[in-house]
Design a protein that fits this description.
The chain is α+β, with helices and mostly antiparallel strands and 266 residues long. It has 2 domains: 224 residues, no CATH class; 31 residues. A hairpin with a 2-residue loop joins strand 9 and strand 10. Helix 1 runs antiparallel to helix 2 and helix 1 crosses helix 5. It starts with a helix and ends with a helix.
Length: 266
Amino acid sequence: MKKLILCTLLLIISLTFLLSGCIKIDISTGIDEELTAYLSYRIEMKLDEVDLRYRDILKNALNRIGWYYQEEFDFSVQMDIENNPCRLVMTKRIGNNNFEQAFNSLESLLTNEEITPFMVVNMAQDGSERQKRYIFSAETDISQIMHLSNYEELSPALQEQLSSAIETGEGNITLTLPGSEIVRHSHQASWLGNQAVITVPLSYTNRTSFELAGVLNLHSDGTPAGSVNEITSDLTWLRNVSVIVCSAVIIILLIIFLLTKLLRKR
């Protein structure tokens, strides 16, 4: 997390010199419909009342953060620093073949101290090939992260300005996971197709924590299924196919047997 701290600190310290800017950081993470694990940051800065002398400081800060994450951690980066508000979107994705693999890939992303936004991450899954149960919980504390950095080495005046900048920050954490049923959630939860989505307001002054527990039904090929009915239909289809194949084999064997008997009589 140390390198993340340094980059975030660079951005917020730039804000203290601007005195009138507003920061919004949205963090998105989870597993999408293609079973790709991802972690994404969207940083937005409003420049309406920012002194023209300081706008380049902000733009350079965003540019340095985007370049750093792209070069060091292979994030894809989209940057718009010429318009108002300025935007920087950084996303890292890992492709997978099944849910279990995707869940493990997500855990590797979010426990990598160099890129994770979380101080604590607890993830677990169990179940059968056709149904998975999982739990996800995480915690971050922007204020504590700041104090773990070189915050104390700043002058008292700069510390005060920095604290003021943090207090005006906005943002959300959004977690999206494939699911058939939400068992437990700590914040607002909703459905997007077969995806369970939980949105958590990001606090810049207090601890932010959240939890999502769910059940995921799976098709025979390991892809997510939305409901028990889909699983039932899938199993029915497999059973029907099996019956048809077995019947066809029996008929073919019977024909071969009859033909063999006829040939012998001749």
